Structure formats: C-alpha cells, structure tokens
Amino acid sequence: MTLTAELRDILGHDRVLSEPLERWVYGMDSGVVRGDAQLVAFPETTAEVAAIVRCARHYRTPIVARGAGTGLAGGAIPTQPGLVVVLTKMNFVEIDEANATAWVGPGVINLDLSKQTETHGFHFAPDPSSQSACTIGGNIANNSGGPHCLAEGSTVGHVLALEMVTADGDVVMLGGPAPDPIGLDLRGVVVGSEGTLGIITKALVRLTPNPPDVRTLLTGFASVEDAAATVSGIIARGVVPAALEMMDQRMTQAVERFVSAGFPTDAAAVLLAEVVGLSAAVEAEAAIISEVARENNATTLRVAADESERARLWLGRKSAFGAVAQAAPDYYLHDTVVPRTKLVETMTRVYEIADRHGITMLNVFHAGDGNLHPLMAFDSEEEGMLDRVKAAARELVEVCVQVGGALSGEHGIGIEKRDLMKLVFTEADLDAQARIREAFDPAQAFNPDKILPAGSRCFDLGRPPLEGMWV
Amino acid sequence: MAWMTPEAPTKAELSACIQCGLCLPHCPTFRLTGMESASPRGRLMVMSAVAKGNGEVNDVFDDLMSFCLQCRACEVVCPSLVPFGRAMEGARIEIAAQLPSPIRRLRQLITGRLIGNVRAMRLATRIARFVQRTVPARFLPRQVRMSIGGLRPLPKRPASTIGSTYAPVAPAGSGVAAVLAGCVMDPWFGEVHIATIEVLRRAGYRVVLPDGQTCCGALAAHDGDAHGTRRLAKQNVKAFVSADLIVTDAAGCGAHLKEYGNWAGDAGEIFASNVQDVTEVVAAAIEDGRLPRLEVPRGKAAMQDPCHLRHAQRIMAQPRAIVSAAGYEPVEIDDVGMCCGAAGMYSVLQPAASAELGRKKADQVRASGSTVVASANPGCEIQLRGYLGGAYRVAHPVELYWEALQAADMDAVGWSLADEGTR
Fold first, then answer.
1. Beta-carbon separation of B49 and A86 below 8 A
2. Pairwise CB contact (< 8 Å): B36 & A69
3. Minimal CB count within 10 Å: which of A386, A390, B208, B289?
4. pLDDT greater than 80 at residue B147
5. Whole-model pTM?
6. Domain residue extents for chain A
7. Which among B15, B16, B46 has the least Cβ separation from residue A25?
C-alpha cells in the first residue's frame, strides 16, 4: 500500500488529489514562497482527520493543515514534500444563542460566521482584512486580528474551547464552555501555534453582540505626522474606537481606483475611525474624534451617512492589499508592531529604507495599536529586485524591533519571519518554546520548519532553507 | 510547448493576480468543493504553471478549466482587476487547439455554425417540440428533462423576427434601436422579443432587426472555438454597421457583444460601445419619463441576477427599477448573486455541479415567498423553471413590464367606456 492508496481508502477517490497540476495550487498561499504538496486530502469529519494523521505518521510524511490559503507568512506552505490537509469541507456552524457562542468547523469562512449569526444579533469579532475568504481554523492558528481588534482583542480572546487531533491521532478537548476552565490553559497555547501542535477540528467561539449604533469617520490630513498625532490624541482623550485605521497617499489612491468610495486622494494620509455602542456614547465619541482631527489640521472630515457608504469605506480598506497589484505584478506585505508613540519616527525611517532600495512602498495600518503593514510593490522578474526587497524587509523589521516593537502583529511567523525570531527572543526563550512543541509533536510532523528557527533546541540539526525563502 | 495560440492567457492577465484569495468565497465551484483547484485563484495558478513551463495542457488541465462556470463573479470582487473571463476563454481556446477530439468538433459545429443558421434552429425546435409534447418526462435522462422541462412551450412554426421593422408608438423621437434576435431567443423565447420590441416602441424607438445578423457567438467563445467566434462576430458587425444603439434581451449575449473588441478589431470595438442590455434602455426610459411607472400592485417578484448581467455587465439596479415600475415588489434572494448553474452549455457538460447549483437557486427562490421570478437571461430561465417546477412563473423583467403596460391600457379603455356610459 502507498499513502495515496490508504488515504483514498479512508476518504474515497475524489477527496485525495495527487495529479501534478492539482497539487501545484496547494504549493502556495497568499505569500511568495512555493513549497511541494505531494498529496492533498479533504477530510469532512474529526474521525477522518485522525485517521489521516495516523496514516501519514506511519509513512513518516509531514502534514500541513490549510484553510483558505490566505496567509501571508507561508504558514500553510509544505516546505518539505508532504501532505496538505485542507479543512474547507469542515464548515458546520451550531449557534448557542443563549450562551452567545457557536461550535464551528475549522473551515468556516470568517465572514460567513458573522453573516450566519447576524439574525441572532451577533458577529465574530476578529475581522482580518481577508475575512471574506479566510477560515476560522486559520484565524485560530495565527491568532488573527483585524481592524476591530483594537477594542475587541485578537482571536485568542474569542475562543473558548478547541477539539484537536494530536500527533498520535488522538482527539483531545482543550478548554471548555466555562470562561476560565481548570487545568493548564492548553487552549491558549494552541491558539497562535500555526498548525505546529495539532490539527484543530472544531472550536467553540465567543460571539459578540452587534452594537446598537455605529459611526464611521473618514478624515484626511496633509501630513502623516498630523494623522499620527490625531491617533495619539484620540486615545489620550480616553476614547478607544472600535477601529482606527490609517492609509498613506499611494495606498489611498490605489484603493480609490477600485472602490470609488470618495477617499481623498490628495491627502498625505487618511484615517478611518469607527465608534460603536449606545447612540449617546457613539455621538459623544464621534464628536471628540472630530475635534481632535480638527485640532490636528484635518483637511477632510466626513461621517459615513448610511450603511452602504460605511460598507464602501470598509471594502476599500479591506481590499488594500489586492488593489496594489494595479501598481506592480508582485507585492510583499509586511506585518510589524511599534509603540503608538513611535509611529511617525518609524514611518519616516520605513520610507527612507524603501527609497534607498528603489522600491515602491505603500502603507496601510492598524494605527490604533501600532500594527504596521508596509507593502512593497515590485516586479520579481526585474534583475536583482528580489534581493533588494528581501534586504529592505529585513531592515524594516530591525527598525521596528529597535524602537521597541514586535515581529508580527497578526500574520504569524510562518517561514517568513522564522529566522528573525532571534531578534526578539533569547536562546532560553526559544528553547522553552521548542520544548513545548516537542511535547506535543516529538517527530515534528505537523507543519515542520515553521515559527522556530533551526537550532532552537541544542540537538536540533536544522534544515537548509528552501530556495526563494524569505530572509 | 506551453501555449499554441495567440488567444492564450497573456502574461499581463496572469501576473495581475497576486493570489490574495478574496475571490474564493464568491466562486460557485469553490463553494461546492472547497478546492483551490476549483477556484479562480487556483485556475489562474494552473494557467501560470503552463505559461511558465511547470505544467502542460493535458486532460487534467482540461478538467480543471472545464469545471469553471465562467460566471465571472470573481471579477467583481477582484481588487487587482484581473480579467478572469478573458483569460479563461484563452485557456479554453488552448484546450481546443491542443486536445482536439471528435466530441469537441461536434460541439464546435453546433455552437460555431449550426446555431447561427435559422433553418437548422427551426429543425432543432421541431425536434425539441416533439420531445416536449410526446415523451413523458420520466423517460428522459435527467439533464434533458430539466432542459426540455425548463423551456417555454415551443411554437409549432417558429417565426423569425430577423428583417422586421417596427415604427415607434408616439411619442417618437428616441431614435433607432437595432435588436439582436439571437440564436435561441428568436425561436424559443418569442414572447420576450415581443415584449422587448413593444416596450421599445412605447419608449419612442423605431425598432429594427437587421437582416444578415446571427448568433452572438458567446457559446462558441466559452467553448474555446476562436474561429467560429470570430466568424460570428464579424458577421454581426457587418449586419449592424449602421446601428448606433444595439439592444439585446439576453444577458449572456450582451456580455459577449460588449467584448466584440476582442474578436472583430476596431469595428468590433465600435460595435461593443453601442451595445446595451434591454434593461438598461428601458430603465433609462422609465427614469426620464418616456415610459410610465404603473401604480397597480402586482405582488412580489424574486430577483434572479443572471451572472452575465450582474457580474459581467455590472447591471443590477435596472431590472429592479423595471420590475418596480411594473408594480411588483422586488425581493432579493441572494446577496452575492451566486450562479444558478445554467451557464450556457455547462448544464449539459457538467450536469452534477449544474444540478447542485440549480437546486440551491430554486431553494433561494422558494424561501423568498414569491411565485414570480424575474430573470433576464434564457439559460437562467430554463434552469430556474426546470428546478422550480410548474407552480412558479419565470419571466424576463421587460416581459413583466409589458404585461403591466397592457393591463393599464385595458384599464384606461375600461374607464373611458365607463365615462361614456355615465354621460
């Protein structure tokens, strides 16, 4: 028997892909690294996932779990020839209205969950820009954020329990319906582990009540400094908006070409702020935001008149990455965090780096929590361009770490930033993390080569990086 | 060899995709399977693999491309503005060129040649009518049953409108509307043509159906028949050379006609710029008062957006405006406009996927609580009627409007008679 034949025994012929062209599309996600998917399996139940894991273990084949493949850090890329387990078919939703929770399959699309819970008056709070396509399983694996996580927190705060298939093929339940279950918080360990500890087959997620009222404000500024000062000013006045997003001029122009939502394309930076809650509070907070924006010389100040205008503005913001393709055939989107007070300084240095390497740089970011998304647009077929982009990317991360920031806000480490982990973690830190991973998956069958750099454990031999791998 | 034909997907088309994946949830076949290889992004990646020599045009390539409905829902949500429909037509042309087969040649004979021949269509209509009237549905293979069952009762002697001219009904002065009769619209959907012609006359248009016109060629283009597509396009460009306004009442035809620039050069470009779907023309006439808004309430109408109207031509408001003006309350059935699965020949070539989508669409209509469905495309109409069954009425929005207009005429006559009686 071969692994292919055994998997077809478990899943049937059509739910295992082995043809080269079919496998080819599973070699990539939304990032830029290509891996090698030898086989692709589509389980529909937890039992099938467990059987697949046991089977792959028997053949010593690495396993990479995948949702919609919208990740940007290469988290779902099979860096070693291996088996990709695609969870898109596990997309059930069972809503518990009384407890404001839902059991969901890992393959449920983030926005679908919010749409399905809308009639009950709920939504799922984490809203990454890719929310119309990305899956809950991927959100959990990467502890995803999104514009509205400024007030609501990232995915880890919205997951109560996880059902997971372990490296042995056992099915375990981590956490539970109680908000603070007893025992070690393994649920917290698994959220954000990027598929390295097991395969999540079911999750109990917290649903957030839809706010009774909402105001979305669009402001434009003649300088990035004014916009950044407005962000700090708003927070200093004690207002924590549901979302506080910034886009620079180039990004605003690219987005406006796609959505025609009336973004001011002549502004150096635009801020999109949203406040939610009871009408009176929303009114008061919107007034404070307008006031702070005016104090900081806002050149545009507009409140979305209705739901369709609001939707249009958010569509613009959330299409930002894709819209960049209008500027160049390839893009490399970064994800770092800096203290809010260092926004202006960091931005200045980030533009400097891009100019020095001759790269087109566009910026869009979650300004409220200092999560930057510098985006480099380029043509990979231009001689030497890829090297310049890689060099610029590394410098950019170093600058962010220097000013007291973090490696990643929400995209995860994957393979993209694995070797940069040493910039922020000591040997002891990395060793502790590697030991946890070893405890879950001694053979490193789940998503090998991800998150932890080679040599995190003293006896770790490491592996040479793949061709084309970032930094 | 990677590509063989000049129509193959171009480097610019393929590199426009940056693999963000936002198209995935809007793709009906991705929704059915959860498979990347059945998504727009996956298909573009497969085309790129061939373009760069990492794959070849083989049976697997054929299967992956043929599973696409060409509904173009992905184009609407693509922030990178990838011309997916064009790239897919290119991929189909490559398949036809590199993997010729007798079946494909037969299909090309039908979609590229016979379908544009009025006499051949008449014969086909007679055969279909015979089957429709004599063979009990249970003896037919399911897909044939759905298609035949979804058709309107076919006429005994299908009339052709080609070559006719109709004078405007006062107030005149809107100009000349040159109408495309189409291949199946003419013999099988005569009532839609009558509604189109009469409503255009009421809007002040002189209506002509120029001689020498033929099938638009959409089916041939979707099946990869570059030669047939070009020939049909050039024939129509010639037939409509003097027209400033070219009107079609089939969404699938309109979407293709608006892309004649790809098939008939500069003359095709000019032709394309003159094309409007009948819903655009009629909605504009209602808007500026050339056609009345009718007040008598007629109940609900479920709005089914043909993909080639909503996604390919970005027309959504106009059919709703027309249905409202006819006195109906338009009811939304689907906030993203998922394909009904008809998709031209798809219902015949990919019966399983087509059936699943057809059932879903029928469920959406049933859930709307409306027994009238407005749909502006013949393929969708057949599919909807097939899956909804006889208790539902499926009609073109302009047809609903024409009926309301006639009813208003009758009322007016009735009132004036009544007036005379009291005098």
1. no
2. yes
3. B289
4. no
5. 0.92
6. 3-86, 93-209, 213-321, 328-402
7. B46
